[in-house]
Amino acid sequence: MTGRGRRRAVSPHHRLGLLAHLAVFAVTVAVLGLDSTLGWIATVLNVVFLLFFFRHLGFAVAAARWTERDLDAPLVGAESFTPPVAVLVACKDEELVVDGMVAALLALDYPHSALTVVVVDDASTDGTGARLDALAAADQRLRVLHRQPGSGGGKSGALNDALALVDGAQIAVIFDADHQPEPDVLRRLVRHFRDPKVGAVMGRCVVRNGVESSLASTIFIDYLSGYLVNEYGRQALFELPAYGGANCAVRTDLIRALGGWNPHTVTEDTDLTLRLLLDGRRVRYDPSAVDFEEAVLSSRRFWKQRYRWARGHQKCLRDYWRPILTTRHLSPMEKLETMLFLWVYHVPVLCGLGLLLIVLRAFGIGDQSAVSTVSLSALLFAGPFTELAVGLVLGRVERRAVWMLIGFIPAFGMSILTATKAYLDGMWGTLYTWSKTARSGVT
What we know:
By secondary structure, the chain is of the alpha/beta class. 52% of the residues lie in helices and 14% in strands.
């Protein structure tokens, strides 16, 4: 999800909602007392955390049972299905990574007559545009589109402009500027479109610079868990993986019918996932379609990236929860899973509230939870750490990598802070500056 440095209001304010929360809390305290109110809040949190714990556990069991078999599955029958494909990439100030990205795209194993590669220079202020022009002059398979400053829409706008240039393509495959896909990625992604119900396909992203810093190592493991366990589990149990925004493919006629990528969100991938489901289409996940990307190397970049993800994901919950609950295209169980997916970036906010209740209880403030058999503090960590542990096993990393799990303690704390700030800013209607994720150019 390549960032863009433009200011935009990602949502109207919901200040009345915040005031309503405070009013309900004040009234409840007045009626039941502070200790009982805090006890019932702890009870509700226990139930929520227990539900997410079993969700994490289900994903971990499914991944441990079947992922390895799918990772080793051979590529069969893809040679006979090669519809016209357009590879689209949006770039803004990416001169450190465009050479590697373009080299990987031009090395993709797909018939040249059926492949178009379009890279968008989104009003870059560094040498990105000139470098892309030089690469295009050296290889006619590469097309470069230059957007003018103020064109608007961010990554979504750039992709929509690129899509307008590829009328003959049936499938659009999206990468970010720092990505370097394996040569067989297109064949592995495209083969799923034989099924007319499939609207989009997501591949697996792997961090390639996990040794650059301790934070990058933590993100490397996070990606193992996210792609080998979480997304795989969502597909295995519910057939509801998410379109991830990069190393993903979508039908061009479908994305055009849906109005293109949404320029009014900072997480166009989650937004498109929900619009596909509401249209009766499905996303499929292929863990064997591997693509390599950079992890951020500093806490400051990590904060900006995860804040953007939380801000956009939380907005999608506010925008789509009613249509999801009323659509005829999802079963009751599928609606529940989709709502849990939408709540993912609200759970850290609840975790922060849970930790606050634990601290207050240590000082004698608050009543015992009605669900006294469930340990609130244990549930905060048990589910995610189960997924992380299974991800380490499936990722076939060396044994000593298990010590990297310690790095998730501060990362978990940062996720609480970023998600809470994103929630408060989103509810208050704070304008959001979408800052670009800085690259290092590591290979």
